[in-house]
Each structure stands twice: as C-alpha cells, then as structure tokens.
C-alpha cells in the first residue's frame, strides 16, 4: 500500500503543469511556484509508507493548496513590517517587466479577490480540475463551490472592467 517512486514520479509528470499554472496565478513568481511544488512532493515522499497510491492526486493538490495558503499568509504578514519591498521579494522589476499589460490587469484583479474565491477560479481555470475534484480537494459542497465561482467571476469581471476605464 506504500507509494512507489514510480507512482510519485508519474504523479509529478501528470500534475506539475496544472499545479504550476495554479500557483503562478497566486504568486506570479516562477521561483516561488517551483519551490512550493518541490516542497509538496518532498513531503509526500517522506510520508510514502503511509500513502495510498490511488489517492496521490488528491494528496498532491491538498499539499500544494496548504503550502500556497501558508506562503500567502506569510506574505501578508511581511506587508505589515517596515521593510522595503526589495527585501521581501515583492515588486521585483525583472518580474514586473516580463508581465504584459493584460497579465498585470489580471494579477491586480485576482489579488483583490478573497482567497476562497481565488482558489476556486484558479483550480478550475488554470489547474484544469473538475467541479467534483475541486469540491473534494477544498472540502466544500458542490453548491458552495458553484456559489463561490459565480461570485468570483462577477467580482473579477467588475474589477477587470474598472481597470479598463
């Protein structure tokens, strides 16, 4: 019942791209995304003796989402400290110049969404997960998920329209 190296590697190959897409829309920083993916798979490898191979995808997503939440919360705490943005890794000019106008608008709009709304959109749009998979991963009912998605899309649409004018 333990997870084999081959099963974990297959999960990595299958999930790396959708996980990266999800994380990138949270943090807009390739290095952070790669670190969080690495940390998630490393944690699973350390627990491989207790992992059911049939549940690996759900465990990867749960681990990634929890790591992203923790990283995001740490970033919020940094904003309250009187440190220059350059020391916290925020507002990196190289990263900012790589993003085109549309991505910057999307980034600003997504950053204004509440975390639960953002998670739902990112998991569906950028990770390619189904509604059932998202509800299971986040531990919410499908009706709650649908409500969050509807509210998130309406809010995102409004924010994007505001930024155009």
Automatic annotation (TrEMBL):
Boundaries of every RNA polymerase sigma factor 70 region 4 type domain copy: 104-156
Keywords of this entry: DNA-binding, Sigma factor, Transcription, Transcription regulation
An example Gene Ontology molecular-function term: DNA binding
Protein name according to UniProt: Sigma-70 family RNA polymerase sigma factor
Species this protein is from: Wenzhouxiangella limi
An individual GO BP term: DNA-templated transcription initiation
InterPro entries to which the protein is assigned, alphabetical: RNA_pol_sigma-70-like, RNA_pol_sigma-70_dom, RNA_pol_sigma70_r2, RNA_pol_sigma70_r4_t2, RNA_pol_sigma_r2, RNA_pol_sigma_r3/r4-like, WH-like_DNA-bd_sf
Residues covered by the RNA polymerase sigma-70 region domain: 12-77
Family membership: Belongs to the sigma-70 factor family. ECF subfamily.
